[in-house]
Design brief:
CATH class of one domain: Mainly Alpha
Structural class: alpha+beta
Oligomer: single chain
Distance between the termini: 54 Å
CATH topology of one domain: Arc Repressor Mutant, subunit A
Strand order of the largest sheet: 1-3-2
Helix content: 55-70%
Number of helices: 5
Strand content: 5-15%
Length: 110
């Protein structure tokens, strides 16, 4: 399945929250870890999963690493999700059209 790794990475609520925080802009681990009920090393593990899935870019900055959303990969994922929605809408439209045709009385002479 396309985007299996990305979807698996996004299936975790903590990683979803990290993505939400990164929507505000690039951040380091310390900043991202603020307010989470888990340790900074645990946040780093979540960041690794997101990075390995290609959803984040990582930029060294001295001894720190700055994490940001990967706009290209996020766009690719969004486009793929949109194509699924388009396919579902098309299937629904075809099914509705077929049902409407079945429900239309045939030409009958009474």
């Amino acid at each position: 399945m396309p985007y299996e790794k990305e979807l698996a990475a996004l299936s975790d609520p903590t990683r979803q929250a990290i993505i939400q925080r990164l929507r505000l802009g690039p951040q380091n681990v310390a900043r991202l870890a603020e307010g989470f009920p888990i340790s900074r090393p645990a946040i780093s593990q979540h960041l690794k999963v997101l990075s390995d899935a290609g959803l984040l870019s990582v930029t060294p900055n001295g001894t720190r690493r700055i994490y940001a959303l990967s706009p290209d990969r996020m766009r690719d994922l969004r486009d793929w999700m949109n194509s699924l929605w388009d396919d579902a809408r098309g299937a629904f439209s075809r099914a509705a059209h077929d049902l409407a045709k079945e429900g239309t009385p045939n030409d009958r002479s009474d």
